[in-house]
Amino acid sequence: MRLSKGPLALVILPALLVSPQAYPGSERVGYLDEIVVTGTRSEKKLLDTPVRTEVVTAREIENTHARNVKEALENVPGLELKAIHGKAGFEVWLQGVSSDRVLVLIDGLPMTATTGSSVDVSQLAAVDIERIEVVKGATSAQYGSSAIGGVVNIITRPPQPGLSGELTTDAGTYRDQNPSGEKYEPSRYSTRAKVEGGTDALAVRLSGSHQHQDGIDPEPENWAMPGEEIDRSDVNLRADWLPGARDKHRISGRLNRFEEDSFSRSTLPISPTPVNQGKTERVERTRYVLTGDHQISTGFSAGWSALHERLKDDTIKYNAVRRFDDRRADAALSKASIEASQTLGASNLLQGGMDFTRESLEQTIDGASELGDRRKRERDGEEVWLQDTWMPNDQLEVVPGVRFQNDSDFGSHTAPKINARYDLLESDAVAGFLRAGVGAGYRVPNLKERYYRFDHSEIGYVVDGYEGLQPEESVSYQFGGGLSWNRSAWLEANAFFNDIEQLIQTYDTGEVTNGVRQFRYENVAEARTWGLETTAGWEASELWQVNAGYTLTHTEDLKTGNELNRVPRHQVSLGIDGPLFVPGLSWGLRYRYQSDEFVDADLGTQSPGYSAVDLKLNYQLSSHLRLFGGVDNATDVQRDFSIASSGEDFRPVAGRFAYAGLKVSFGQ
């Protein structure tokens, strides 16, 4: 079955006709000198921030040919990307804390979850990204509910004056796992394009992305196809207006339209005769954002934002006899925020803000509501946050904060936090520091967890929402330190401890209907995760870079004493970039290892550990033309599909993938 490319293809085509490149002012900045904002909501160099932050830079995205946020995040130490059950996508786990408790933001603003509370990061195109900041542990004083595990903040680049643009396209093959059976036929391809320009006062950018995958099918003779066929299209329009003095005021308007069509085939293990079944799904996301940043006077600034997002998710299943379960969900998110900051003397920066949020959900199956006695469910929230950055001397920085939250369904709650940094030594060559933080996390169960039915019967289970869910609460402790040499080499270590109560998990009701197990969300657990994260890197020159990371994670379900499911004990990452013998030609290697993980700790079943290697090549022929290629998962590690139906192997679905592409550009 071939999916229609949809109307967005017609919108993207004009942008693809423009031959587009490097961004104005794109001179290289060292990794430790990257500017970050997520941890404190104020600009800090990465080496100097009091809140431990990891950054995926524009250079890393370019060197690894990342097409979307999932691919951009693959090499962040300690971060786990897990396939979403029953969906053609991936979610983020941090420090052993699942994706429902990790807040994904775009320019500091939240997104509607694609499934449960999880944002599918493979749906987010990488075309406009300036960098991605990852902060682990509870940071609710800045960003509110859902940040128990941490925050992933995707920061986009403002449009630039003048006229410039770029076009990137690539295609590749899974060889003998192509559903067509043709080894050398392109089975996955993508195109990304942008054009931007204007004056110093007003600049506009139009960008688009299209990604297609035929699917992944190790056994084409069988009905089941483990890797879905997917079409994703994304169009973004952004305009920035800088009235008056440049950089004193910036008003930005953004419009995003995303569409996804996916198709999957599975065999439902019903005794005595398994049933072949298929599912089609269409996702539509429309997002409107208006923001303003204003430097009112020396030391005083203010900002505001308004967001409205609507997500539609329609699925329908079929078998040899009929079409059924026409499920349609319509979720909306609206948020208005204001914030201000004021310097107080030479040692304090006081910040504060207010957020107003409304969520709604409608869901039907075959035209009948699945939300109980109502067709639509809604919830409102109001939040106030305060934070002070205090520097009593040149060595110590302390950042206390608190967030007050009131929810229409769950009442009020207060979540405090404090971070600190102490510089042990600082010279022209060597710097050493300690960092520590304690934060309270708080997560209100969203409307989907309370009312939605996650029907994954095609892989043997369904999960029902539960209206009686209560909020989750946590306390996160972080302590570590680091050394750096000449701001080009670094070593960091960070110990963490997360204590979570009222943990929402899927509860097995014990019921099985037509071979489909019945689950329900409940507050069934109290859990702890703790461990150690280490990272090291060396930028030996403009062309040579090495970075590595190791994460040790322990977990415990306090009610059973067992480890938590789906959390590997050990993770290792390694990245190397360097030149080759031809000017302009460079190579890269990315290595990832994770140990085995429990599928069901109560039963003792485990998914095997694995190692994966990606190889990358880049050839900069001129300032406006670059050729690239690579092999993802060169080790060809893949799950054993003979036992996948029992859910005991979570290794990658996709095997080795070889591809090539080019990027052309014009302007600065």
Give the structure's gist in a few sentences:
This protein is mainly β. Helices cover 4% and strands 59% of the residues.
What can you tell me about this protein's structure?
A hairpin with a 5-residue loop joins strand 20 and strand 21. This protein has a single domain, classed as TonB-dependent receptor, beta-barrel domain (Maltoporin, Chain A, Beta Barrel), CATH 2.40.170.20. With 668 residues, the protein is mostly beta strands. It is globular and about 75 Å long. The N terminus is likely disordered. It has a 22-stranded antiparallel β-barrel. The protein has a five-stranded mixed beta sheet with strand order 3-8-9-6-7. Helix content is 4%, strand content 59%. It contains five helices and 36 strands.
Keywords:
668 residues; single chain; mainly beta; 22-stranded antiparallel beta barrel; 5-stranded mixed beta sheet
CATH C-level class: Mainly Beta
Low-confidence stretches: 1-26
The major β-sheet equals: 22 strands, antiparallel, barrel
The percent range for helix content is under 10%
Number of helices: 5
User: What fraction of the residues are assigned to beta strands by DSSP?
Assistant: over 45%
Mean pLDDT: 89
Structural class assignment: mainly beta
End-to-end separation in angstroms reads 43 Å
Q: Write down how many β-strands occur, each being a DSSP E stretch of 2 or more residues.
A: 36
Q: Just name the CATH architecture.
A: Beta Barrel
Number of domains: 1
Please name the CATH topology.
Maltoporin, Chain A
